[in-house]
């Protein structure tokens, strides 16, 4: 190939970078990747499909030299300092008008800072969320671009080519100004945490009624064929079949219960409080991963309090409750995340188009599910919906599951099975549908001890009372 011939360059040939680049090559683009690790460059070239143009190099300057101008370069490296390090090493090699994309899970405030920094140097910088994991990156991820419109138009044909397709529509769309791409991806991951927590609670609840791994496989398989159809339910079904090569046991049974995290769920909770928007199912999911790390303390507490769950229902009696409870709670998790995006769009001036967000999430990403079709229709009817729970179709679905949801939470409490995500979802629902919350009492308390004042329901203005003097 001649000099300056490659269409696209990738920095970081790990799980995501390698697979996304190969996906581009599979769609006819000539691609080049850079990684310091020679083995990763070799792995890139050896896993390329026949007839595609793929090259891996160990020098960044060499890759930049071989790109068509204006250059289009993406980095898929760990969030934080590595992204700044890559930008610093790229800058002397770039020309004005080149496009630099951060496709990793960066915090949106870092993206805002980098957009401004590079704009001053006439380099187009975009933060793009990519979801779909290893397989999705190779065969069709969900792509969440935000920021520089001109740069987006430049890379749009490539992104549309490699994205997942739903009914022929690519799962990529311009999702707002400046750091919006990474903001949307952060909230996507917050919802991901919430749904994973809810599914893990279903696992515990069904096990309390004696479900075996084989039965759990079958339950989740069947659920994936109905209104709970989703990527996470599908992979959960498959997980219960997997055998451990070392012991021959079911692999899920030999995996430690300490859950890891890289931070995007925590950021969603933190940033929701900054706005503020209430996302308690996401908060709970983050807290439960944290609690999972207290292994020794939990074992000590189990000695003191006991850790048995006593099921008062048979598996057959429990199954419809868990099914409906999961659907109800999953809707609540999406509702909270989407309400956060609605608020952030306005308060942070990101102009995030929610109809496009839910449409892009329909395919390729970790939280793809049949529910997103319902939400897409809801936002098409009403693009300025502040909360999807206010949509008639969503409300009908929620109401149809409410009775079993309440029965499930009662069962969880009575059997002693931790189901914090479900309980949080129901508590949010009950508060959200309350015209007059008991928070008038909190206002009275605040004014009592701190003269913080309060508003009345009958007279406008701000009031203070010298409490307790009657
Ligand atoms: N894995 C997943 O399912 C998903 C990950 N993401 C995000 O994508 C990004 C990449 O993730 P993933 O591919 O899984 O990570 P990996 O660890 O598999 O790959 C990261 C790559 O970045 C390289 N790298 C690290 N630091 C630097 C640096 N300073 N300069 C140049 N290269 C560097 C590493 O090279 P070396 O090892 O040779 O140092 C490695 O090849 C992260 O932000 C992640 O959160 C987003 C969606 C899904
Ligand atoms: O972005 C992703 C999927 O959408 C990543 O898989 C993410 O890193 C998973 O997060 P964590 O490691 O915190 O569970």
UniProtKB/TrEMBL annotation:
Domain 6-phosphogluconate dehydrogenase C-terminal: 181-468
Superkingdom in the source lineage: Bacteria
Keywords per UniProt: Gluconate utilization, NADP, Oxidoreductase, Pentose shunt
Catalytic activity: 6-phospho-D-gluconate + NADP(+) = D-ribulose 5-phosphate + CO2 + NADPH
EC number(s) given by UniProt: 1.1.1.44
UniProt keyword annotation of NADP present: yes
Function: Catalyzes the oxidative decarboxylation of 6-phosphogluconate to ribulose 5-phosphate and CO(2), with concomitant reduction of NADP to NADPH.
Annotated family: Belongs to the 6-phosphogluconate dehydrogenase family.
Protein name per its UniProtKB record: 6-phosphogluconate dehydrogenase, decarboxylating
Annotated organism of origin: Dyadobacter sandarakinus
Lineage: Bacteria, Pseudomonadati, Bacteroidota, Cytophagia, Cytophagales
Gene that encodes the chain: gndA
């Amino acid at each position: 190939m001649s000099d300056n011939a490659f269409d696209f360059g990738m920095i970081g040939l790990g799980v995501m970078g390698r697979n996304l680049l190969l996906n581009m090559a599979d769609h006819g683009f000539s691609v080049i990747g850079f990684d310091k690790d020679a083995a990763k460059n070799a792995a890139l070239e050896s896993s390329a499909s026949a007839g595609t143009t793929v090259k891996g190099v160990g020098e960044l300057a060499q890759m930049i030299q071989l790109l068509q101008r204006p250059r289009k370069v993406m980095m898929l490296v760990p969030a934080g300092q590595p992204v700044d390090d890559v930008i610093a090493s790229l800058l002397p090699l770039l020309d004005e008008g080149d496009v630099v994309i951060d496709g990793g899970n960066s915090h949106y405030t870092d993206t805002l800072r980098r957009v401004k920094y590079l704009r001053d140097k006439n380099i187009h910088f975009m933060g793009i969320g990519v979801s779909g994991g290893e397989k999705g990156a190779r065969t069709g991820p969900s792509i969440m671009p935000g920021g520089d419109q001109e740069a987006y138009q430049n890379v749009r044909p490539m992104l549309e080519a490699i994205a997942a397709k739903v009914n022929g529509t690519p799962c990529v769309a311009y999702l707002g100004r400046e750091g919006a791409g990474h903001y949307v991806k952060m909230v996507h991951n917050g919802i991901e945490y919430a749904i994973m927590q809810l599914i893990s609670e279903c696992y515990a609840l069904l096990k309390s009624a004696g479900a075996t791994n084989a039965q759990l496989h079958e339950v989740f398989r069947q659920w994936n064929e109905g209104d709970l159809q989703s990527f996470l339910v599908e992979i959960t079904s498959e997980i219960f079949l997997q055998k451990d090569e070392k012991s021959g046991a079911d692999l899920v049974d030999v995996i430690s219960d300490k859950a890891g995290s890289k931070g995007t769920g925590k950021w969603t909770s933190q940033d929701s409080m900054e706005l503020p928007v209430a996302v308690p199912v996401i908060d709970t999911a983050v807290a439960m991963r944290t609690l999972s790390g207290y292994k020794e303390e939990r074992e000590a507490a189990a000695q003191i309090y006991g850790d048995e769950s006593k099921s008062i229902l048979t598996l057959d009696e429990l199954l419809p409750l868990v099914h409906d409870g999961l659907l109800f709670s999953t809707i609540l998790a999406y509702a909270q995340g989407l309400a956060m995006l609605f608020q952030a769009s306005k308060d942070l001036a990101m102009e995030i188009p929610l109809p496009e967000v839910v449409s892009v999430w329909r395919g390729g990403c970790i939280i793809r599910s049949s529910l997103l079709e319902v939400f897409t229709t809801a936002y098409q009817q009403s693009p300025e919906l502040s909360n999807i729970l206010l949509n008639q179709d969503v409300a009908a679905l929620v109401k149809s599951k409410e009775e079993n949801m309440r029965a499930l939470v009662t069962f969880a409490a009575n059997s002693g099975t931790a189901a914090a995500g479900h309980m949080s979802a129901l508590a949010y629902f009950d508060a959200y549908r309350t015209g007059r919350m008991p928070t008038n009492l909190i206002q009275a308390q605040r004014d009592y001890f701190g003269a913080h004042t309060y508003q009345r329901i009958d007279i406008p203005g701000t009031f203070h009372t010298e409490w307790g003097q009657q």
